[in-house]
């Protein structure tokens, strides 16, 4: 009964992968008929200075986003784990950024960072923290940090709900027994909550990492294909669709997919060990 669905999914996924790999091992075809050249396109992408810079930017996005998502997500999960008035409303508001498409989030935040009449410049000028409007997305330091924050804003609800589900699976009897033994809330969190939350943390880190590696919409909406914020996925888009170099573009896409698979596999192994 499942064979037709498996066949359809296999064709929809397998055929593009095969065709894409064939394209990645052929010449670009810009100056003639494509021909087989082996792994030359992969070698070109590995040694491309633009790709190297995009990899550095992607690692910066990854480090900032995953760290903030894990710390803030854990804080939100611990807060929502306790019953209080209005908890359902807070949960509904928490899901809202995740429910919004990333393009819509980028448009909303572009209004915040606008150098002429953006909300951020207006607020800082009123507080006398800056003397003149700032071009927030013109410098690499601020641009990467702000784009990472926008990404975190959209992914944080998913991470927080994942950790909240892990917290709710911890039996209350464990905390009661430790309280009888004189354990403080901090010792309970350190020696009970964190160890028993490891599987959920591994899942949250895996999700956050894969989403950070594939960051595209926020960068494109906020800063386009500018060099100071270009990620690997933006570099792929620029190579394949702007420059019409599909051979090198698909090679870069397969390299990115391989890195994502390796990281995902590492997190799966850590998850098994955590269990």
Q: DSSP strand (E) fraction?
A: under 5%
Silhouette: globular
Helix residue percentage:
over 70%
Per CATH, the architecture is Orthogonal Bundle
Biggest sheet features: none
N- to C-terminal distance: 34 Å
Could you please say which CATH topology applies here? MetI-like fold
Q: Mean pLDDT across all residues, rounded?
A: 87
Q: So how many helices?
A: 13
Q: What is the CATH domain class?
A: Mainly Alpha
Task: Give your account of this protein's structure.
This protein has 275 residues and is mainly alpha-helical. The radius of gyration is 23 Å and the shape is globular. The protein is built from 13 helices and no strands.
Which SSEs are present, and which pair or pack?
Elements lengths: L2 H22 L15 H7 L2 H33 L5 H13 L2 H12 L5 H8 L13 H29 L3 H9 L4 H12 L1 H16 L3 H7 L8 H11 L3 H29 L1
Helix pairs in contact: 1-13, 2-13, 3-7, 3-10, 3-12, 4-7, 5-11, 7-10, 7-11, 10-13, 12-13
